[in-house]
Amino acid sequence: MPHVASFPALPLSIRPLHVVLAVAVLLLVAGCGDGTARDRAREVADLTEFEVPRGPDLAPRKLAFASDATIGAKDDGSVWGWGVSAHGELATKAQGALQTTPTRLDGLSDIVEVAGGAGHFIALGRDGGVYAWGSNEYGQLGYAEEGDYSSIPRKVPGLENIVSIGADRSRSVALDDAGRIYGFGLSERGVFGVSGSAGESGKSQAVPVLIDEIPGAVKVFVGSTSIAVLTAGGVVWFIGSNLQGKIGCAAGAEPWISKFTKCGGISVVSIALGNATTYLLDNHGKVHAIGFNSGGQLGQGYRDAKINSRLASVPGIGRIVAIASSGPAAYATDDRGRLWSWGESAGGPSIAGFARKDWPSVGFVAQLESPVAVVGGHARGAALLADGRTVFFGRALGAVRGTGRTMDKDTEQTWLTPEASLWRWK
Questions:
Q1: Which end of the chain is less crowded, N or C, counting CB atoms within 10 A of the terminal residue's CB?
Q2: In the β-sheet with 390-394, what is the strand arrangement from edge to edge?
Q3: Could you give the number of structural domains in the chain?
Q4: Burial of 101 by CB count in 10 Å (0-12 exposed, 13-18 middle, 19+ buried)?
Q5: Alpha carbon 378 to chain centroid distance?
């Protein structure tokens, strides 16, 4: 029987009072904001709840990141890519090939959703099938392949009627319309439902394996060593690593769990899994965080190296409609199109001559024009706008933004300035 528990809440006595950290953005991409930097520095969040509770966010993910490459699925079903094709990520056999301009990938059509790991991508077809390409070091492509990568997108055998996909690092996950969850790639810390010592150590799973079945499941989310599933009723189920307390509803203090655990207490509409922190967006527009806080990932106004296994509401923001995690930092957009961020390196990277800037309190980044989704991963983020444009923020090194040029270094300005890509999602 799966374990059922509620998230323990952070006691009011240790919730710090704070003022939202306001960050002035020096420049904004044309059409993404107006007003002076001084006006933007005074931005104050709306903390009121939504008048009508929101349902689960079922919109397919149109953009996906690998370490040094990006792909996007357009509304017409075509898939485009840019960046560095180190392991065939851009469907080219030339390892290390650089593509600065978004280019259509061969062999893919009628694609509705995409997901990415460190060096591989998977795509969900309109027919319910899954396609995979890139690095296959741990079997994360789900099919046998000579060598350790494939530059040709191929259909994963044994997966049908899939409605949601996810990937991270060296594993892939798929959810079908009956609530069955399948995994392939690196199996570790119980993430694929394997218990005991066999489940703890890393092992390659070269073909899809059935992890569990959760009736009513509608969307899957994949983190570095954990998986979360969301049901139509707003209930969250977790499996995998709990080393930093990021599965706060896990029974006891287990470092990892090999059975999906049902977590109650709040009605959830979306989930973002960071490196060691989990973010939940509830149906009233509030964000909740649990897990590690060394860089201020919990957004509570302070940093510590303790395991925080109690769910804490992120203060200073409200009416949030979308969340994402870049790994060590979090992003959120509200119903007025404002982009907020907090956590490790939220205010800038750690590079020569430029100290990393952690934001332990929520900071205002930019005013965007009608964002419909926000995506994060590999120290960068992006927002899809209603008119079809895509803007990037965070890490800009290389050609990951698809602007037609390469960046040889990150700066505070490029980190915090949304920049339009040449790629449009519609």
A1: N
A2: 371-377, 380-385, 390-394, 419-420
A3: 1
A4: middle
A5: 9
Structure-token match 């001084």, residue found = 38
CA 327 – CA 236 distance, rounded (Å): 20
Q: Which residues pair with 363 in a beta bridge?
A: 21, 341
> What is the token pair recorded at 357?
């800037």
Residue 57 lies in a domain: yes
Instruction: Tokens for 388, please give them.
Output: 């079809």
Least confident interval from 34-48, 223-237, 280-294, 379-393: 34-48
Q: 34-67, pLDDT tens digit by residue?
A: 333 334 445 889 999 999 999 999 999 999 999 9
CB 77 within 8 A of CB 109: yes
* Predicted TM-score (pTM) above 0.85: yes
Residues in Cβ contact with 197 at an 8 Å cutoff, skipping those fewer than 6 apart:
none
Q: Which domain holds residue 326?
A: 4-420
- pLDDT band, very low/low/confident/very high, at 19 (cuts 50, 70, 90): very low
Work out the average pLDDT over 159-166: 98
DSSP 3-state of 42? coil
